[in-house]
Each structure stands twice: as C-alpha cells, then as structure tokens.
Amino acid sequence: MKQHRWSIENIAFGSGGALLQKLTRDLLNCSFKCSYVVTNGLGVNVFKDPVADPNKRSKKGRLSLHKTPSGEFVTLEEGKGDLEEYGADLLHTVFLNGKIVKTYTFDDVRDNAKLKDGELVELLQ
Length: 125
Prior knowledge:
- The chain is an alpha+beta fold and 125 residues long.
- The protein has one domain (31-124).
- The chain is 11% helix and 16% strand.
- It contains two helices and six strands, in the order E-E-E-E-E-E-H-H.
- Strand 1 and strand 2 (42-45) form a beta hairpin.
- It is extended.
- It is an enzyme of class 2 (transferase).
- This is Nicotinamide phosphoribosyltransferase.
- Its EC number is 2.4.2.12.
C-alpha cells in the first residue's frame, strides 16, 4: 500500500457477522424508525407502506408501549397511549429538541435489555 501511495482510509476488512452468529433485527422482528415529526409546530406521521410487501408496513404516528395483564407488550399507534385498558405508557422521553432529558447508566441498559430464561432459545428455533 505504501509503495502504491494508497491511503489506509481507503481499505476495509471484514468477515461478516453471520460467521459467528445469525442474530439480526429481522430474527427478533425489531427495527427502530422515525414514526412522527414536528416541523414548524405541525405534527406529521412518518411511515412506510410498501406495495410489494404489506408485512413491512411500519407503525405510524406517536407510539406508546404498554404491558398487558398477561405480561405481553403492545404498541399503540398515533398517540393513543395511557388507555385504561393498557395502563400507563412505558416509553420515556430521552432526547428533546437535541438535549438529553433522561440518562441511563450502562447497567440500567443491560438490566432493561435482559431476556427471560429461554426467550432467546425460543426465537432461534
């Protein structure tokens, strides 16, 4: 590289993560996208609705997350949170207008991300 005067910034090496394990957001049916924006005081729903694959339709509007009495989580679209049927919205504002309004330690994140015994095994089968 030095002889040909190539910059190291132009070289990339990789092996692909699937060589180690095949855990992807698709396996867990999980992805994070923008669903609502406010521009000049006007709120607008943001979503995708592909004609070729209706299963890839995203949730739109202000979202809320609730835990059912049976312990399952449900996401409600378009700001319909805090309904008596579901209880309080579990989502919290972390960033607001470019400022951090709630902080978490790395241990907090780890605790919140823990799966119950056997959950990952079930997903991999």
